[in-house]
TrEMBL record:
Pfam families: 3HCDH, 3HCDH_N. The keyword Oxidoreductase applies. The lineage of its organism: Bacteria, Pseudomonadati, Thermodesulfobacteriota, Desulfobacteria, Desulfobacterales. Residues 186-282 form the 3-hydroxyacyl-CoA dehydrogenase C-terminal domain. GO terms for biological process: fatty acid metabolic process. This is 3-hydroxyacyl-CoA dehydrogenase (Beta-hydroxybutyryl-CoA dehydrogenase) (BHBD). PROSITE patterns: 3HCDH. One of its GO terms (molecular function) is NAD+ binding. The record marks 140 as: Important for catalytic activity. Belongs to the 3-hydroxyacyl-CoA dehydrogenase family. NAD(+) binds at residues 10-15, 33, 92, 97, 119, 143, 274. Residues 7-183 form the 3-hydroxyacyl-CoA dehydrogenase NAD binding domain.
Length: 282
């Protein structure tokens, strides 16, 4: 299927990154959020990223302007009737995603594929809220989106082969490498990553090591680009907790219980980089 118009729901750290890579690949992008100030903040982040590439000599100023010129913003979800493919990258809350998919299903043209960047909510459960479950799929980008090469493409039970192939090809058009996953809690990426992060939080909780030492062990001992606690701050501690809860609910296995300290940080509003405080201060 030929994709011309591409929609992104949410202009936060994942949404604006997705909009940037889509526009860089040559697509016309419509990025939506609930308030214009959120859209403006997303556009400012994209502009900052592209300016950095220009100053490093990796991007021509004219190309930066062309990329920015391909992105428009809206606070009206109904405007998504113009696009052929949507990625929803709103907050990781099931009720919110259900509502967005019900609305998108009403607004979008019948051929439009509705994908979600959810990190762990079952694709089948989201698909069931629409009248086009065969056209619902997971398209899971990694943070920071412009840098990370992976897109996890998740097939729900009703996802059609055509929807899967279109999403796979689109990931490649974005310069990413797709990996296929089936619809189980946490899919592949977070099924493996989050228990590691949660275990690192348990190491803080039980005073096995200090934050810096835990991260040093994983960085220098395992060659990870950043330690698990710094990574948790980058992802957002609220998102980490939400994913652990999805794993715990989905498998009913105590090995996925969220560390009480993670919950305490989230309750205190210490969500990582986005609030200026998490395991580190920013
Ligand atoms: N946005 C855009 N570009 C960014 C960026 C951001 N937020 N952060 C860094 N970059 C760019 C830099 O500009 C730089 O670009 P050039 O190569 O063109 O110069 C490049 O990335 C490398 O950056 P730095 O030199 O500043 O720093 P670094 O080498 O330490 O890399 C990092 C930073 C890419 C974040 C690296 O530490 C890393 O890979 N960390 C692990 C990230 C990770 O695991 N992400 C997955 C999280 S899980 C997830 O997202 C899924 C989920 O559902 C929770």
């Amino acid at each position: 299927m030929e994709i011309e118009g591409f929609g992104v729901i949410g202009s936060g750290q994942m949404g604006n990154g997705i909009a940037q890579v889509a526009a860089t690949s040559g697509l016309k992008v419509l990025m939506s959020d609930i308030k214009q100030e959120f859209c403006d903040k997303g556009m400012a982040t994209i502009t900052k990223n592209l300016d950095r590439s220009v100053s490093k000599g990796k991007l021509e100023p004219a190309e930066r302007d062309a990329i920015l010129g391909r992105i428009t913003t809206t606070t009206d979800l109904g405007a998504m009737e113009a696009v052929d493919f949507v990625v929803e990258a709103a907050v990781e809350r099931e009720d919110l995603k259900f509502k967005i998919f019900e609305d998108l299903d009403r607004f979008c043209k019948p051929h439009t594929i509705l994908s979600t960047n959810t990190s762990s909510i079952p694709i089948g459960r989201i698909a069931a809220r629409t009248k086009r479950p065969d056209k619902v799929i997971g398209m899971h980008f990694m943070n920071p989106v412009p840098v990370m090469k992976l897109v996890e493409v998740i097939k729900g039970l009703p996802t059609s082969e055509e929807t899967f192939q279109t999403t796979w090809s689109l990931s490649q058009k974005f310069g990413k490498t797709p990996a296929e996953a089936n619809d189980f809690p946490g899919f592949i990426a977070n099924r493996i990553l989050m228990p590691m992060i949660n275990e690192a939080v348990f190491c803080v909780y039980q005073s096995v090591g200090k934050v810096e030492d835990i991260d040093t062990v994983m960085k220098l001992g395992m060659n990870h680009p950043m330690g698990p606690l710094a990574l948790a701050d980058l992802i957002g501690l609220d998102t980490c907790l939400a994913i652990m809860e999805t794993l715990y609910d989905g498998f009913k296995d105590s090995k996925y219980r969220p560390c009480p300290l993670l919950r305490k940080y989230v309750e205190a509003g210490w969500l990582g980089r986005k609030t200026g405080k998490g395991f580190y201060d920013y």
